[in-house]
Amino acid sequence: MSQKLNEFEKELLEYRGEQYKADKNMVESLLQKVNRPGIHVICEWLDMKQKNGMNFYESPASTKYHGAGIGGLVKHSLRVYDVFQDLLKKYRQNQPYPKEETIILSTLCHDICKVGVYYPQINKSGEYDGRGAFKFNDLLPLGHGEKSVMILQQFIQVTDQEMMLIRYHMGPYDPILKTWGMEDKINEKEPLCFWFYMADHIASKIEGLED
């Protein structure tokens, strides 16, 4: 491994300090409120290194948009957790308030499909391109929201509402909704899908621009 590529490892080590511990403690303390068999396995998986050398806490949320750097994914997920609750309190009107378990599981795990798919960007000289330089390479391309649901279901039983929120959190950016004109049907089936999408949109497309 070149000296330049070793800078990626140094970047990881910089993050694996107090910030890493704080992020991990926050996520695990929330997930432990989910009283279902398998929740401890999810916590273990989130801390497990993937083929790209990073786990959930170290992963970027994107290559060049929101959270495009080490630790970006957990930061984004925790922010969606906060924003979703704020939106529900302000705007849900007559819609039933979801269970706390559903809020926690859906927000923190809606993007777990991104774990293991971002690799350090290596240039033609075999060197790491620099801080926050990543490329996307999904070795198991099963979609986005649907893949997050699939991963989650390997560890824990997921409710219909949780599956809907996670699967359709991209809202109008989801190509399936665009192609088949299903947006109204989805929101009719699960009205909170709209507010979940808005939470993700605010945390990524609005606040995320400041990352």
Which features would summarize this protein structure in a list?
single chain; mainly alpha
Structure description:
With 211 residues, this protein is an all-alpha fold. It has one domain (6-210). Helix content is 51%, strand content 3%. The protein is built from ten helices and two strands; from the N terminus they run αααααββααααα. The model has no long low-confidence stretch (mean pLDDT 89).
Task: Give the averaged pLDDT, no decimals.
Answer: 89
Query: How much strand?
Result: under 5%
Helix/strand order, N-terminal first:
HHHHHEEHHHHH
Tally of alpha and pi helices = 10
Give a brief description:
This protein is an all-alpha fold.
Topology:
Layout: H1 6-15, H2 18-31, H3 39-46, H4 72-91, H5 100-109, E1 118-120, E2 134-136, H6 145-153, H7 160-167, H8 175-180, H9 183-189, H10 192-206
Antiparallel strand pairs: 1-2
Helix pairs in contact: 4-5, 4-10, 5-7
